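Please annotate this fold before class:
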Amino acid sequence: MFKINVVEDEKNLAGLLEAYLKKEGYECKIFNTGEDAMAHKADDVHLWVLDIMLPGAINGYDLIKAIREENPIMPVIFTSARDQDIDRIMGLELGSDDYVSKPYSPREVMLRIKNLLNRTYKMDNQKISEIIKYDIYTINKDKRCVYMGEELINLTSKEYELLIFLLENKGKAFDRDQLLENIWGSEYFGSDRVVDDLMRRLRSKMEKLDVETIYGYGYRLK
C-alpha cells in the first residue's frame, strides 16, 4: 500500500483530499502546519503533497528542503493558491515533481498522484535490475542510484527520470514538448521552461554528460 503525507492548512480541503486518497486505497497522513509536518520529514512514505503557503514560520519550501535532505528522490507535488511562474520554477529548483494551482479538483490531484507514483515506482514493480555505464558514471536502475566512481550523486526524481530517458535514447533528438510529455506526463500544462531548468541542473551535477543543445528545438545525448 502506498503511503502519502499531505500538508494542507485548509482543513476542509485537506479532509476532502484525505477521503479521496483513502477511497483509492492509499494510507494517508494530514498535517495542517509546517511545524507538524517537519517532525515527520523522515517518514517512510512514497510521496508528499505540500502546500507552499502555510501558517507559521515553516512553509512548503522549507519542508521540501528538509525532505530532500532525508531522501533526495522522494516524489513531491506542490500546491499553491499563487499561480505564478516564479513559484513553479522555485519549486522545481528545489526538486518538486509537479505543481498544482488552487483552487483544484481533488480528482486532478489524484490523477497526478497516480501518474507520479507509477512513473517513480514502476522500476520496482517490474523487478528490473540493470546497471548502465556512461563515461565515468554508473547508474543502478534497480536502486535508482547514480554514482561517479564510488561517490553517490544526489539527483531529484525528475533529474533521474530525465537522465534515464536520455540514456535509453542516446543519439535521438527531442524537442521540449516531447521531453515534457515523457518526463512530466501529458497532464502537465506548465511552461516548457522547466525543461531547460531541469537540463541545466542535471548538467551541473553530471558535467561529463554530453548533452547537445539543439538551438530552437531541444536536446540530444551524444
